[in-house]
Design a protein that fits this description.
- There is one protein chain.
- The longest helix is centred in the first third of the chain and has 14 residues.
- The protein is globular, with a radius of gyration of 14 Å.
- The chain contains three helices and six strands; from the N terminus they run ααββαββββ.
- It is an alpha+beta fold.
- The protein has one domain: Nuclear Transport Factor 2, Chain: A (Roll).
- The chain has a six-stranded mixed sheet with strand order 2-1-6-5-4-3.
């Protein structure tokens, strides 16, 4: 598997807030964890419901791949998120995903984030 291509396409689905496409990246019995859902979401349909609600409550966000590292059973990916806050204002986050694969789909995804004071690509 080309993890850089997989990661790029997956982050594009996050950027597009395309729930139908995004959940196809995940196994039927996937496990998903993020800062808002620390107890986790289990199963593709529960993830679909969570993402639908999440995307309805968030502003436009663009996820740009930064780096990926292959690990046993999957990969780790780091990204930068640009958040459109209105009035030509933006906020930035750096994120890190632990992605464990179940065949050619994600079996477990853990997301870790932190806010950035500025776009790190302009530093």
């Amino acid at each position: 598997m080309d993890i850089e291509d997989f990661n790029r396409r997956w982050l594009q689905a996050w950027t597009d807030k395309d729930v139908a496409t995004l959940v196809q990246f995940y196994a039927e019995d996937t496990e998903y964890f993020d800062a808002e859902m620390t107890s986790g979401v289990r199963g593709r349909e529960a993830l679909r419901a969570y993402l639908t609600e999440l995307f309805a409550a968030t502003p436009p966000m663009r996820y740009d791949p930064d780096e990926t590292w292959a690990i046993d059973g999957g990969y780790c990916g780091r990204w930068i998120c640009t958040i459109e806050t209105g009035n030509d204002s933006k906020n930035y986050m750096r994120g890190f995903d632990l992605v464990l694969m179940d065949g050619d789909v994600i079996g477990r995804n853990e997301v870790y984030i932190h806010q950035l004071p500025a776009d790190p690509r302009e530093a």
